[in-house]
Please model this.
Amino acid sequence: MTHTEIVNFIWGVADLIRDTFKRGKYQDVILPLTVLRRLDCVLAPSKRKVLEANAKLKGKLENLDPQLRKASGFAFYNTSLYDFEKLLADAPNLAANLRNYINGFLDNTISRLQEAGLLFKVLERFKNVDLHPDEVDNPTMGTVFEELIRKFNEALNENPGEHFTPRDVVHLMVELLLAGDEERLRGEGVVRAVCDPCCGSGGMLTIAKDHIVGTAERPGINPKARVHLFGQEVNPETFAICKSDLFMKDPSGRDADNIAFGSTLSNDRHAGRRFDY
Model:
């Protein structure tokens, strides 16, 4: 599926919930569940290993986190017995099981969807879209999130430019940012820190890193360079999108740990640090 097809498919959830949720609340349902579905797809191959490790080591080790990270292959994991497939297989207990799956996250939204008889329909729609990075790479997923945000803003007659920057503009900004530094970025042992104090869904950070180290589709300036990303975001939805995306990009979780929540103007969470860009 192209990013446009994915966006239109996911946006179809709005047709299901329009009588229960106001337009301004669509994103409270659609964005978190999109993130959850992507995480569900990412963790699916290692789900059994995580559950086995958790069952084997629970009560024997004080801190299971390192072993469960190793089992999942990422800096995050889910020890719930459920995934989207199993949730929908037990429709009568879907609300309780979904709360178990996400451990209280989205609790009010789940209640409203359940009361309106929409929870199964909404979850079923998300189950039918494969958001694993092998199927939808990170740049495409970033575009999907941005298109969804644009649709939310259009539904509220807001200016989408206030909430995200188009990818073409971001590429141009990064090229201007790095222009003239190519030689200094080449060679052995290059380490650079990049910060976006209003990072949104993280597009500028990840594209800056991609321009330096390169991707499978596009060569970078120095594939051996080590680029550390830092950011801060005040909007909780886009903060969650950024952090989850970086967790999937870097199994160590280092870049994701460097993304802080809150207003940089009133509470700079990276105060005292210095960055190259």
